[in-house]
Design a protein that fits this description.
α4 packs across α5 and α6 packs across α7. This protein has a single domain, classed as Aconitase, domain 4, CATH 3.20.19.10. The chain is built from seven helices and seven strands. It is of the alpha/beta class. The chain is globular.
Length: about 160
């Protein structure tokens, strides 16, 4: 499973209220996604492209357990989130909806807009501008299976033949 896209760089403590603002929770998933990260970067939802990669600092996804935070990123087409660390519930929610998340500290190493290539099965993150590669822990096969299916529910439906 390979993800390629431009980097969107954010700092520490990106919480679920910034990813899925409370005032937009009654909107459709597409409507909610249009408000994703707008408190930090008002143009994010308008400019992010399918496959782009969010790169952040520590404790990404802290706050409430709302799965809409991960869903907003996935709805916008974000290909993966790379962060120094994740709030546990956000991490699980992301995997469950099919959004790849990888814990890696890239503080100061990736510039906004830089092209990245993430190979989850091999455990390699390549920075396209200089060819530098970061070795990562490869994703376990059962997680790759969930992500490849498009999330846990999609995987269960496939297994049940629906």
């Amino acid at each position: 499973m390979i993800v390629e896209g431009s980097a969107w760089v954010f700092g520490d403590g990106i919480d679920t209220d910034v990813l899925a603002p409370g005032y937009a929770m009654k909107k459709s998933p597409e409507g909610l996604a249009q408000h994703c990260l707008e408190a930090i970067n008002p143009d994010f939802a308008k400019l992010v492209k399918p496959g782009d990669i969010v790169v952040a600092g520590a404790n990404f996804g802290l706050g409430s357990s709302r799965e809409q935070a991960a869903m907003a990123l996935a709805t916008l087409g974000v290909g993966a989130v790379l962060a120094k660390s994740f709030a546990r519930i956000f991490y699980r929610n992301a995997i469950n909806i099919g959004l790849p998340v990888v814990a890696i500290d890239l503080t100061g190493e990736v510039a906004a807009g830089e092209l990245l290539r993430l190979d989850l099965e091999q455990g390699v993150l390549a920075q396209q501008k200089d060819g530098f590669e970061h070795k990562l822990q490869p994703m376990p096969s059962h997680i790759i299976d969930i992500l490849s299916a498009g999330g846990l529910m999609a995987q269960l439906k496939q297994k049940m033949g629906r």
